[in-house]
Give the backbone structure.
Amino acid sequence: MATYNGAEFVAEQIDSILVQLGDNDELIISDDGSKDATVAIINGIQDKRIRLVPSQRFGSVVKNFENALRHAEGEIIFLADQDDVWYEGKVDAVIARLETCDLVLTDCRVVAQSGEVLHESFFRSRDSRPGFWRNLWKNAYQGCCMAFRRSVLTYALPFPKNIDYHDWWIGLLVELKGTPCFYDKPLLHYRRHGGNISPTGQAPQEKDWKNRLRNRFWLSWYIIGRSLQH
């Protein structure tokens, strides 16, 4: 989990995760220099499975998640946002599907800050389906809905410079080098708030065609380079 000024929702999200973890699992959290009570809230949750790792002011969600992933030791890795809520049974359902896949992407319900459901299915709202070229143009890979085998990190890290989305990068690499699995059952509340993301989950910069082309150019450039290295 990557956090930044998430005091309003982070405790609810952590609770929804911890109840599904085993004794030998861990919740790794990297904080991007929060100025609110986020870190105090995390430290106040007395659970040995929480590991708040050394971090700094990255000023970047991508770098913050990379820091968390570099501290991961488990064979199965889930990505989590600070303000969502996992549904009961999410972990077990995903782990079962990772028996035959390298990465699982689940559906989710898109909700407002208040919890009101805006879209019953992110997959349906975005017509999410696997395929490298399809997802290069219209990305379906949301980190909060992703889990993958540790082996994915051998070719996904380090994250390149000049990419805006770590989840998009990971998803496209698995499309080329592994086996992705789309699971169409919603397994979390995907909370949208603050005006930074639209109700469908589309980032504002993705609405601008210049940024669309720039993002895809750099992704393609780095993916070609990484594929040649591994």
